[in-house]
Amino acid sequence: MTIHTAPSHPVTNTHALEFAKAWDYAPAPETAKVTIEPRYGLFIGGEFGRPTNVFATINPANEETLSEVSTASAKDVDRAVSAARAAFPKWSALPGVERAKYLFRIARRVQERSRELAILETMDGGKPIKESRDVDLPLVAQHFFYYAGWADKLKWAFPSTSFSPVGVCAQIIPWNFPLMMAAWKIAPALACGNTVILKPAETTPLTALRLAEIFAEAGLPPGVVNIITGDGGTGAALANHTGIDKIAFTGSTDVGKRLAKVAAARGIPITLELGGKSANIIFDDAPIDQAVEGIVSAIYFNQGHVCCAGSRLLVQEGVVEEVIAKLRIRLQSLRVGDPLDKNTDVGAINSKLQFDKINEYLRIGRDEGATLEQPNACELPKRGWFCRPTFFTGVQQSHRIAREEIFGPVLAVMTFRTPEEAVMKANNTPYGLSAGVWTSKGSKVFETAGKLKAGVVWCNTFNQFDASSPFGGFKESGFGREGGMQGLRPYVKLG
Length: 495
Ligand code: NAI
Ligand code: MG
Known about the structure:
Blueprint: H1 13-22, E1 39-40, E2 43-44, E3 47-48, E4 54-59, E5 64-70, H2 74-93, H3 96-112, H4 114-125, H5 129-150, H6 154-157, E6 163-165, E7 168-172, H7 178-191, E8 195-199, H8 206-217, E9 225-227, H9 232-239, E10 246-250, H10 253-266, E11 270-273, E12 279-282, H11 288-299, E13 312-316, H12 320-332, H13 352-367, E14 371-373, E15 390-393, H14 400-403, E16 410-416, H15 419-426, E17 434-438, H16 442-451, E18 456-459, E19 478-479, E20 492-494
Parallel strand pairs: 1-5, 7-8, 7-10, 8-9, 10-11, 12-13, 12-17, 13-16, 15-16, 17-18
Antiparallel strand pairs: 2-3, 4-5, 6-20, 11-19, 14-15
Helix pairs in contact: 1-12, 3-5, 4-5, 5-7, 11-12
The chain binds 1,4-dihydronicotinamide adenine dinucleotide (NAI) and magnesium ion (MG).
């Protein structure tokens, strides 16, 4: 028997419009100004070089060039690897308590400069300032604090075995959480005594370069972290360099598979955090209003540029109409636009390339026979790349919009009848990064979560992160964990 506890309110479009109007705010732009150099060189051996072979990084919210950064050539990659190699013996021989001091200093400096970093993150990448300020930056500082705490306690992380750092780590990161991905990768690597060459994504290099400034301010010995900018060519040169001992990558599954071959051929360790097509399951006994908030944060947070986004919504049949009706209303009240405005909920799509890709999926979804809805009617800025929060109903599991990672604010809504069907549909994907379960029954949470093939399962919430909690995927979403004690493991050799 189905116990249907959620109240069903009559919802009409008129109500929705009144509601949306009631939530119309005056503009509240971020007022602090951040200085950006016209050009940046590479950060190798503790100092910035002269800018060479530059390319522009732009603000996706207005298409203006923010700065120009250098493309690291094969020769530059070689210099960076040599600097990291040279720094390794001394850095790895430091007592953990000494390495911890540097990490604590970096963490505190990130906090002190967090407003500047948040603004820059938003300008370079397009995410709303309230996210970079309240989510990304606190997590960046938290990761450095957290792994600073581990640096002198590694023998408790690896009891009854000897361990040593892996060596020189090549870390290649994407554009969706530029500074957070840098922190997730650098902090555990340094805590364990490794040295690093980090390559940020080509559309979001500016905050990683600021982080380089912070490393210098913290007195981190030259060469311990090197930051080289460039495109996929630079990434490939770095990953293929014979002087590196480990690859850590977050990004597309295609590039991840290529890097896995490189690592296998050389017999070096690799950790991969790749794409996702995560399911968000709403049972009919769930608190529906909270679940709708959860749906919004699962797929519209950071414009859906989230590898673990809950991009497949699975709703139990009895409540699907109520969920859709409430979702429609909620989407009308989201503010899409200037990412530097403190009231903005959905910012700019990171690049023209990604914008085109998302629009292509909107077309594919319609061609496949699904119904597209974009209930939000707010006016979009004239320039820049913006996409209204979108959902598709009438979606089949075989549709491409239900199988492929779109990496945009686009939700595929499907239904299920029984818990078994929900689990079967949720697991029907080559990915396995995350999942969400919404129900008022604790037993159902555990029963369902245990059967989901996903690295993280959120219950009655979504997209919650913490430095002490491991994160990573099943199947084609990758392997290895970041965060928590588990996040130390990829950065040591045991025995
Ligand atoms: P990408 O995988 O090409 O880029 C990620 C990083 O890898 C960047 O720093 C890039 O310069 C570098 N890279 C590119 N080619 C490389 C190569 N051959 N060797 C070494 N490094 C290389 O991702 P892209 O093109 O920016 O986005 C394409 C799609 O990938 C997105 O639409 C999205 O579906 C997915 N994606 C998933 C992410 C995740 O966190 N799981 C993050 C970014 C993108
Ligand atoms: Mg940019």
